[in-house]
Amino acid sequence: MSRRVVRQSKFRHVFGQPVKADQMYEDIRVSKVTWDSSFCAVNPKFVAIIVESGGGGAFIVLPLAKTGRVDKNHPLVTGHTAPVLDIDWCPHNDNVIASASEDTTVMVWQIPDYVPVRNVTEPVVTLEGHSKRVGIISWHPTARNVLLSAGCDNLVYAILWNVGTGEMLLVLEDMHTDLIYNVGWNRNGSLLVTTCKDKKVRVIDPRKQQVVAEKAKPHDGARPIRAIFMADGKIFTTGFSKMSERQLGLWDLKNFEEPIALQEMDTSNGVLLPFYDPDSSIVYLCGKGDSSIRYFEITNEAPYVHYLNTYSSKEPQRGMGFMPKRGLDVSKCEIARFFKLHERKCEPIVMTVPRKSDLFQDDLYPDTPGLEPALEADEWLSGKDAEPILISLRDGYVPVKNRELKVVKKNILDNKPPTGPRRSHSTCDPDFTRPALEEVLEEIRALKQTVQAQEKRISDLENKLCQFTNGTD
Predict the structure, then answer these.
(1) How far apart are CA 120 and CA 111, in angstroms?
(2) How far is the C-alpha of 186 from the C-alpha of 162, rounded, in Å?
(3) Which of 53, 85, 163, 272 is 20 to 30 Å from 40 at the Cα level?
(4) pLDDT tens, 397-419?
């Protein structure tokens, strides 16, 4: 009589592999700020990393193809006046990134497809509403231009913004009694899950501004808890036991008192950052200061959380970036790609399912969320919900060209007082006529176009040089 000992799963043999040395990003001074964010954000066009910066906060944005040693004079994104704590790419525009900082502001940036010659210092929009540092930002998964930010204010609240108008949509007050550790959206963006220093996990309906469900002490330890939504609405948590052992838990909102699964892992100090792939239902756990990535498959069969394997290396990680599914190489059966931050470099790690066939693997790549938003901000605010608009990866994903983020102010009169002295009409040169003014403006426009064209030309030549270099190494 045959007995099946090993659970059948197509992801049982997933293995991780670092890229070759010339495919890494070297000479990057990764930030040393003591904050439990991932310090890295990735999409199919760019990798962004929070870096050390004198006299303010900065992060670096590199095209994915620009591997190797990064020039010490490479332009940075430098608009914040204090360290940057979190960054997040917009899921509906690969050229738009948001950053949160200790300077109490959130800034949204438009990144050009070419490498700029100088530092990027002017954000598309600055969102001001927090009174203390802002440590968490997260874009809405299906509604255009909706961004959530959570700060360390005395009232401890989160703000939902409409980036398209630069206005607050909602303020979630009086729901948390202490510092918010992390925030996560569910699949259609109708609910939020938050973890807090008061040892509670809360599920919040942001439009009704009410807590739908709450669980006190899902993990008994004092160290930070993390929580994310699964595709089916369950909640996955990581935390610590009373004995400081790291734990993971799976919870059902219908019965939030008892966990579906609760597993102990090890006794390390680092907070476990969970990264979730809803298409394969795999959760990857990366601990700050660890040198490994553990991954688990979530199913509807007991014990529900199934350990798959561990990717181990020698160097500890300072942070981690996670590539969206549309940025993966489907021809190599790649199901995840991480961007591991070291002290002075960023190392991509590829997770692969071994397959002999070169054909497209339908079972590994179901349709996945694309760039197109399902809702506008106003529709979502009025109560509409929509699932993400899916795309097929059968022919591989081709990033679209740069789409400009337009910010429309509803009130043409800005409330802020003018910055710096303004010349009155009486002090203007009387000989400076309107045609002369238009001529000067036209010349400025022409010069700007020339500068942009030269920057693009320089970027193209640098990319060609990189290709020649990579080809001769």
Answers:
(1) 8
(2) 19
(3) 163
(4) 666 666 667 666 554 334 443 34
